[in-house]
Amino acid sequence: MKSFRRLVYPYLVWAGILIVLPMLIIVFYAFSTQGNSMIPVKMTFDNFARFFSDSIFLEVLLRSIKLAVITTIICILIGYPAAYFIAQMSPDNQSIAVLLVTLPQLINMLVRTYAWRGILLESPFSPEVKVYIGMVYNFLPFMILQIYTSLSKMDPSLITAANDLGCNDRKAFLKVTLPLSVPGIISGITLVFLPAVSSFFIPKLLGGGSYVLVGNLIENYFVTTGDWNFGSAISLIMAVIILLSMYLTRKFDYDKEAI
Amino acid sequence: MKKKSWFSRFYLVLIMAFFYLPIVYVIFFSFNASRSLTNFTGFSLQWYQKMFATREMMESIYYSTLIAVIATVVSTIAGTIVAIGLSKSSRLVKEVVTQVNNLPMLNPDIVTAIGFMLFFSTLNIPTGFGTLLLAHIVFCIPYVILSVMPKLRQLDDNLAEAALDLGCTPFEALYKVIIPQIKEGIVSGALVAFTMSFDDFVISYFTTGPGINNISTYVYATTKRINPSVNALSTIIVIAITIILIITNVIPMIRARRKNDEKIA
Predict the structure, then answer these.
(1) Which of A143, B4, B116, B254 is within CB 3.0–4.6 Å of A75 for a Cys-Cys bond?
(2) pTM of the prediction?
(3) Tens of pLDDT along B37-68?
(4) Would the CB atoms of B111 and A12 count as touching at under 8 Å?
């Protein structure tokens, strides 16, 4: 069966060219500027210096992180009770509820956001609130499903045991259910925070161009102004922030498990 | 306890109302007689007529479906082959492939997307249908590998060895022994690939060329002005997905029931 090993080799070439190389090209663009006719490209840190020295860019970055953090928190606060209540239903109702949560997600995200645009068109909400509604709407199902999965794996006799040992319902929840559902919350956070930081069509469709996020900046530099070097630098900064925060959340998760 | 269950039901109904509000809204206003998205002035099918008459709209449905079907078939076959190879590979190769596959899965879509865009422009490849399809195949394969791998780990190596001892060629062993046992993983991988491709906006937006739009990029391009035909398009997507879900969920349920009934009889 060792001969099957060879089946991987073409993919190594494929992935090297179509996955790794594009990332390297982004890095190359980020660290260079377009030169003149004599020297076509110049390696430089200018793109990064420009980003970190201008308060407008930092403001956009902070706004994106803030939006993603608040969206994630709202999704946990609204999603946790929902997941908890679903997990307490009869098995048949549970699968129906899960199907009902999944169904809207199968409909194109752009189509759903477009619908919200119509609903919120003449509402008195500020662009910021509209963007938050759209974000929570799109990402809440991920959170509910992740927390539900970890809750449904839990052995119900643990709660009975906690009750027998003198915990009231509230204490049993805080000491048993909640800690056991932390892995679900963590994977929910990665599924919500990650796409939320980089989203650009939800703020554009619902915020009406007045609410600029990092994703919109990148889109602008690639599609409108055509400054690919600076656009690449912004993407690289965003990718590093996201990978770092994912690494930290996962590390937090492992540390908890170690205890 | 009674009071609690009343509250939990109320809470879940509210959540579902939130999830289904935009869907109901879109269906409702797709039958509106006027352009307005806030006042319903009367029943009409004009937006459906306009939708069928707009060539770009019909083309976007065609391209979304075509690309999703081709990307699913190609990435499912390729992903399964790679996963089988990986299950026999050294730890180093496994680790390298996993880390590389993580790149498009963990990176924000927009970073993967501009990576493709810069790649195609560096190699002077004109963007269009081909680049769009290639990008979709590239980002679908890692998801197929991810769903097939766990099934392969559960596989008993001795079965394939036995098949070889009994005179099967390696290809026959693969086809007759390994594939049937990992079928579930392959099917779920194909489903993930199809939904990822059919729903994708960000990667399509940066890798497609002039004149080629899928549903997502078409909707994005038309949102500058109000276009109620998009509601008609959305309604048709909602109906199609609901029918597919009913077929895939209800038919197995009926079958399972019938089997149970037969057992009882």
Answers:
(1) A143
(2) 0.87
(3) 777 888 888 889 988 888 888 999 999 999 99
(4) no
